[in-house]
Amino acid sequence: MTAPLLVIAAGGTGGHMFPAQALADEMLDRGWRVALASDARGVRYAGGFADAVERLEFAAASPARGGLMARLRAPFVIYRGIKAARARFGADRPAVVAGFGGYPALPALAAAWTMGVPRLIHEQNGVLGRVNRLFARHVARVCCGTWPVRNPPRGARLEPVGNPVRRAAVAAREMPYPEIGGTLSLLVFGGSQGASVFARLVPQAVAMLPEGLRARLRVTQQVREGEEGAVGDTYRAAGVAATLAPFFDDMPDRIAAAHLVIARAGASTIAELACIGRPSLLVPYPHAMDNHQSANAAALAEAGGARILPEAGLTAEALAAALRRLLDEAPAEAAAMAAAARAQGRPDAARRLGDIVQELHQGAKG
Fold first, then answer.
1. Per-residue pLDDT of the chain (366 residues; tens, 9 = 90+)
2. 62 φ, ψ to 5°?
3. CB distance 126 to 149 below 8 Å
C-alpha cells in the first residue's frame, strides 16, 4: 500500500519554512510521504528539508506587492499555479494539505479546497497573515503557534499547538542556562539578514558599559553584508571580542550558549527562545504586517521570559542600562527570565501538529 502523502504549502521565508520543516520531519518519521509546495524562490530556500521531501514548484504572486503591472498580472499567475497544482494532485492525490502562510502557499491550498482534499493551516504569528486569513474558514483546523490570536476570523476553528521548532532547538533545550560568572555571552540577531538598528545601537550600548563588564563580554552578532567593518571597529575600540556574520547556520546552539539575546520578535525566534529557555530583549520590527511581531512578543514578555523594547525612541543609553542590569547588577533576574521563557516552550508542537494531520486523514477515510 502506498504511504499517504502530506503536501506542505509554504512561503520562502524562515518564519514559514522552519515550522514546516519540523512537521515534514515528524511525518517522515511516521512513514508518510511528504512534498513541499512553494514558488521558485521558496523551493530554492528549502535546503533544510530532508532529501526525502519532494519539491513541487507552482507559480505564485502577491496582488499587494510590486508595481502596477505586477499587481495586475498577479491573478493570472496565481490561476496558473492553481491549475498546475490541481493537475499534480489529480495524478498523486494528497491525503492532507497543510498551509504555513505566504502567497506561495496559495496555489496548493486553493487546489486542495476545490478538490475536497482535507486541509489545515498553521499560523505562526499572533495575527493571521493574508493567505491564512483567506483560507481560515475553509480548512478543518487553524493551528496557532502564538496564543491568543488577535482578531481571528469568525467561524474559524482555532487550536493552540505552538510553533514547531527545528530538532536542533529541541536538543538544545537540554542545555542548562549558563551560570553568570566569568565570561558573558551576548547574542544579537534580527530577521533573515540581521537588523540595521542593532548594528547601529548595540555596539554603541556595549561601548557604554563599565570597563570590567566589557572585558568579560563576548558578542555574537548577525550583521548585514557591508556593515561588518563599522560594527567590528566599534567593538574593537571598546575592547570587546565579537564574532560577526550575515548568517549563522547553528543558531539553536548559539542561543543555548547565550546569557542574553537581543532579537526581533519573529514567530520562529520566539519559539526557539522559549523552547531553549533564554532571556531576551525583544525589539519588534515596527513595519511587520499588522504589527504581528508585537503580538508575538507579548505572551513571552507577560510570562516574564522577555522584555520588549519598542524600536521607536530606543536609544543606546537605554539598551546599555538593560544590559548592565541583567548581566551585572541583577543576574538573578536573567536566570529567572530564562526559566520563565523555558516554561513557555512547546517542544512537542511538531508532534501535536502531526497528530492533527493524522486525525484529518483518518476522518477522511471514514
1. 799 999 999 987 778 888 999 999 999 999 999 999 999 988 888 888 999 999 999 999 988 777 888 888 889 999 999 999 999 999 999 999 999 999 999 999 999 999 999 999 999 999 999 999 999 999 999 999 998 898 899 999 999 999 999 889 999 999 999 998 889 999 999 865 567 899 999 999 999 999 999 999 999 999 998 899 999 999 999 999 999 999 898 999 999 999 999 999 999 999 999 999 999 999 999 988 888 899 999 989 999 999 999 999 999 999 999 999 999 999 999 999 999 999 999 999 999 999 999 999 998 876
2. -110, 125
3. yes
- CB neighbour list of residue 200: distance below 8 Å, 6 or more residues apart: none
End-to-end CA distance of the chain: 18
* Buried/exposed 167-184: b ≥16 CB within 10 Å, e otherwise: ebbbebbeeebbebeeeb
The whole-model pTM stands at 0.89
Q: Which residues pair with 150 in a beta bridge?
A: 127
Identify whether 152 is preceded by a cis peptide bond (ω within 30 of 0).
no
3-state secondary structure the chain: CCCCEEEEECCCCHHHHHHHHHHHHHHHHCCCEEEEEECHHHHHCCCCCCCCCEEEECCCCCCCCCCHHHHHHHHHHHHHHHHHHHHHHHHCCCCEEEECCCHHHHHHHHHHHHHCCCEEEEECCCECCHHHHHHHHHCCEEEECCCCCECCCCCCCEEECCCCCCHHHHHHCCCCCCCCCCCEEEEEECCCCCCHHHHHHHHHHHHCCCHHHHHHEEEEEECCCCCHHHHHHHHHHCCCEEEEECCCCCHHHHHHHCCEEEECCCHHHHHHHHHHCCCEEECCCCCCHHHHHHHHHHHHHHCCCEEECCCCCCCHHHHHHHHHHHHHHCHHHHHHHHHHHHHCCCCCHHHHHHHHHHHHHHHHHC
